[in-house]
Amino acid sequence: QEHLQSVQNSGFLEQLIKILHKEDFLLKLNCVELLTTLALAPHGQKYMESAGVLTIMTTLLEDCPNHPFADILLPGLVKFWGNLAHTRPQYIMTKFPVFLNALVNMVQSDDFTAQSIAFETIGYIGVSLEGKTALVDMGNKMVE
Question: Model pTM?
């Protein structure tokens, strides 16, 4: 918690959030990876919610299919959301349906890499009982 406060006071996190608005997809990808690490800690998740990072990441995930480098950016975004859904599956799956839609699209894709990433993410979410329950509550979206 105090390390997060120190990083926040340095302005580093604000710079990361600003980079998410830039067009350079490699910068975005690196920011997403750093934010994924932050998302693993409960206090990091709280910070991201209060700073509006989840809203930005939702927009990135929604716009990803229109991005010319979507095949490179999408796995990083799915990893970010998958880590959040691993720790808080019910909340993430219901509050951010764009994540579930992205997983469904990846499963139904002809791209075997996208399919394997989606199945791995679903498996990671379903490790806990709460994750299994959240996935069951979503219904049969994978076969629709």
Answer: 0.88
